[in-house]
Amino acid sequence: MTLLSVDSLSVRLRTRPVLSDVSFSVGPRECVGLIGPNGAGKTTLLRAILGLVPHSGHSSLAALPPRDRGRAAAWMPQARDIAWPVSVETLVALGRTPHLSGLQGISAADRAHVDAALDTMGLDALRHRTATRLSGGEQAMVLIARALAQDTPLLMADEPIAGLDPANQISTMEVFAGLAKEGRAVIVSIHDLGLAARHCTRLILLGDGGIAADGPPDAVLTPDNLARIFHVSAHYAHTPQGPVFQPLEVTR
Predict the structure, then answer these.
(1) pLDDT averaged over the chain?
(2) Where are the beta strands (DSSP E) in 66-181?
(3) Which end of the chain has fewer CB atoms within 10 angstroms, the N or the C?
(4) Confidence (pLDDT) at 32
(5) Cα dist. 101→50, 96, 104, 179 in Å?
(6) How many domains does the chain have?
(7) Is this entry keyworded DNA repair (predicted)?
(8) Is the pLDDT of residue 103 over 70?
């Protein structure tokens, strides 16, 4: 079963080519880390997959009507804009919007999804707080909870752990890995290669306008790929808690 199919996708922003001929598919039980240096096109690729930027080629999500797309995939963009001073609970409940019809209100089943998302992200004590008055890290956690409440087969998140403290970075990646183990799929853009190596089942490395490598973490985070795409060397080791990956120095 395939939850996302991308075929020969290319993107030009103004006159500049950003991505060329990108193809891959994602199925259940995959936690896919989208990695690459700054400017490699990670955000652009995620937005193109969702049909949010002009592109050529095919994305199975972009081809869907908006409501169907919202039921197929939850999206957490890099920008953490919360426009209204609503409660945390209300904001997370907005994740149920694609599942509602017309003027239909939130049902008991919808509220159960909201409660579960708040609990998963450790936000139950904040449910009645005004979201705009939270710290930046807390707001990020609330927006992740909103995506979880959407309860879709696929979750796509663009740098969701940026700015979080180490404990919340780890716990968030554990949540994503857990979703994959339950049978869903996650695509997460991430700069922390150590957390990507530990928690993702698969890494897609972007570089030079396309996919430079795609596979299990230890097959992608090779010395050659690190030097060629990231221009760094690194230490990589296996521990009882999982792989440890630490960049050491710039090689260019």
Answers:
(1) 93
(2) 73-76, 154-158
(3) C
(4) 98
(5) 22, 11, 5, 26
(6) 1
(7) no
(8) no
Give the predicted TM-score (pTM) of the model.
0.94
Q: Is the sign of the CA dihedral 105, 71, 46, 188 positive or negative?
A: positive
Average pLDDT, stretch 34-51? 96
The count of residues in the chain is 252
pLDDT at 101 over 90: no
pLDDT at position 198 over 80? yes
Which residue shows structure tokens 């705009």?
A: 132
Burial 97-136 (b: 16+ CB within 10 A, else e): ebbeeeeeeeeeebeebbbebbebbebeebbeeebeebee
List the strands of the sheet with 56-59, edge to edge: 16-26, 4-13, 56-59
**3-state DSSP call for residue 81?**
coil
The DSSP line for 182-201 is TT-EEEEE-S-HHHHHHH-S
87 against 234, higher pLDDT: 87
67 lies in which domain range? Answer: 4-82+151-250
Cα of 88 vs its chain's centroid, Å: 21
Pairing state of beta strands 210-215 and 242-250?
Answer: unpaired
In a domain, 110, yes or no: no
pLDDT score of 100 = 87
Secondary structure of residue 30 in the 3-state scheme: coil
Which of these, 152, 153, 140, 145, lies nearest to 120 by C-alpha position?
Answer: 145
Distance of CA 70 to the CA centre of its chain: 15
CATH of the domain at 214: 3.40.50.300
CA distance 134 to 132: 6
- Kindly give the interhelix angle for 108-120 and 136-149, rounded to the nearest 10 degrees: 140
